[in-house]
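User: I'm preparing a small set of examples for a lab meeting where we compare how different chains pack in three dimensions. I only have the primary sequence for this one, and I'd like the structure in token form so I can line it up with the others. Please keep the answer compact; I'll paste it straight into my notes.
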Amino acid sequence: MLVKNKYVGKTKEEAIQNAIENLQELEENLIIKLKEEQKGGLFKSSKVEIEVIEKRDVVKYIKDFIITTLKNAGYTVNVEVKTKEEVPTYTIFSDNDSLLIGKNGKNLNALSLIVKENIIKEIGEPYKFVIDVNDYKEKNDQRIERLARKLAREVKLTKDEVKLDPMNSYERRIIHN
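Assistant: Understood. Below is the structure token output for the 177-residue chain.
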């Protein structure tokens, strides 16, 4: 379970400032959700309640969730977390990488989907992260980039159209970039 702290203030900014001071954390390291807002009346002051989750807690929660899920599926795994451009990458090392990856990465994509849905359920909004098994995605991305460059050179020389095999949206984005 993620720790969700509640803070109250007369305005949303005041509530956020209370959270920043209490947690001694920068605002960009927090996930802030508005829980309740009461307008002030003639004899009543306004009140805003927010819910705050620290991003480092989310990163740890995802790591623990991956380890628990794979342990329950019968795998012995070690998970390493690296953050690149504020997006955590979870690299899984296992004794059976090929089963975790699956054909064309299907099992890896399924695991990512399970984790993504669990995070949305926990924090109420999407959270960007990457799950990789023994650098499979990184190597696959490099392979796709090499293919794109090779085909671009070929098209430039021959002026003939080239058709590629069907790809998922992530692979198409790499090709277009």
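A couple of notes for your slides: The longest strand covers residues 30-38. Helices lie at 12-23, 55-72, 97-101, 106-123, 136-158, 169-176.

User: Perfect, thanks.
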